[in-house]
Amino acid sequence: EELKVPDIVAIPQQELSTQHGGDEPQSTSTCISHLDDITPPISPTSQPNEEVKILQTRVNTLESEKKALEIKMEELMAASKEQKERSELIVAEKKAKQHADELKKRLDEARKEYEKKKEHLREDNKQLQKEVNNKKQEAQALMAEMDSIAQAFEEMQEQNIRLLQQLKEKDDANFKLMSERIKFNSLHKILAEEKQLILAEVAAITGERDRLNNLVQKLEDRDKNSEAAIAATEKELNLRQQLFELHKKKAVEASQQLQEVSLKISELEETISATQKSLLSKTEECEKETQNTKKAQEEIGTLKRKLEKYRHREWATMSDEVLVEEIKTYRNKLNCPVCTSRKKDTVLTKCFHVFCAECIKTRYETRQRKCPKCNAAFGANDFHKIYLS
C-alpha cells in the first residue's frame, strides 16, 4: 500500500514524458525542439489527436490502477481487524482520489489551452507567411515560457517529494498517536475502575461519617439534657435551701407561739373550770324548760286536731267542684293533642306517643312523618291502633 502512493504521485512525469510516444522523460531541449517543429506548413490536427489519445490511455490506466487499488483496499478492509489499518487505507484512497481529480483537472486545462492555441493557429495560418518574423519572436517567448514551465515542473517534483516525505512522517505520527491512544484507553479504564473503588470507599466513609454525626448529635442532645437537668436540680436545691431557711424561721416562730399558746391554755383551763360550774347550773334550768316545752307541745297537738276537724268540714263543701275539674282534665288527656276533638286511638311505636288515627294518617299522607311532640320520624309500619275500652 505504501508503494502504490508514490507511483500515483509520479504519474504527471510519465504523462509529460509520453506526449510524443516515448517511454522515458524528455528534457527541456526536446520540448523546445518540439516547439520549433510547429511551423505553418505542418497540419496542427494530427499531433493533438495523438496527444489526446495518449492522455486518454493514461486516464484509462489511472482508472484501472484506481480500481485495482480499490479492490486491494476492499480486500484489506475485509481482511484487517484493526481500526488503524482501515484508517490508513481510507487516507490512502482519499489521497489517490484527490490526485486523480487533480490530474483530470490538469488534463482539462491542457485540452482547453491546446484548443485555444489550435484556434489561434488556424486563424494565424493565413498570415504566417507575412508574419514569420513575428512568429519566431513568439516562438522565442514560448521557449522562455517553456523554460519557466520546466523549472516549475521541477519545483513541482521537488514539492511532490517533500509531500511524500511529509505523508510518511504523518503516517508514522498517526501510528504513534494510535499506539498512545490505545495506551491512554487502557489507562482510562484502569483509572475508571480505581475511581469506582474510590467512590465506593467514599460512600462507605460518608455513611460512617453520617453515623458518627448522628452519634455526636445524640451525645450533644444528652449533654444538653443533662445540663438542663443539672440546672433544674441546682434551682431545686436553691429553692429547697430557701424553703429550709423559711422552715427554720417558722420553727423558731412556732416555738415562740407554742410558749404563748401554753400560757393561753393555762388561762383557758381556768376559764373552762368556771364555765363548767356555770353549765351545771344552766343544765338544771334547761331540764326545767324542757318539761315546760313538752307540756306546751301536748297542748299544741290538741289544738291542731281541733283545727283539722274544722277544716275537714269546710273541704267537704268544696270537694264536688274539685272532682269535676279533675274529670275535665282526665277527659282532655284522653283527647288527641293535635285536634283536641277526637279521642286517642293510635300509638307511635318509635316514641309511644298516642294520637288519633286521622291526624296521623293526614301527617303520613302529607309527608309530615314526624311525631308532633318529639319530632321522631315514623314510617307506615310504625303506628298501630289501641283499644282503651
- Globally, the shape reads elongated
Distance between the termini: 136 Å
Mean pLDDT: 77
> Structural class of the secondary elements?
mainly alpha
Low-pLDDT runs: 1-45
State the strand order across the main sheet: 2-1-3
Give an overview of the whole structure.
This protein is mainly α. It has helices at 4-9, 11-17, 28-37, 46-79, 83-125, 132-334, 357-365, and strands at 346-348, 354-355, 383-385. Strands 2-1-3 form a 3-stranded antiparallel beta sheet. The two termini are 136 Å apart.
List keywords for this structure.
single chain, about 400 residues, mainly alpha, three-stranded antiparallel β-sheet, 3 strands, about 0% strand, elongated, disordered N terminus
Would you summarize the structure shown here?
The chain is mainly alpha-helical and 389 residues long. It contains seven helices and three strands.
Could you outline the blueprint of secondary structure elements for this entry?
Elements: H1 4-9, H2 11-17, H3 28-37, H4 46-79, H5 83-125, H6 132-334, E1 346-348, E2 354-355, H7 357-365, E3 383-385
Antiparallel strand pairs: 1-2, 1-3
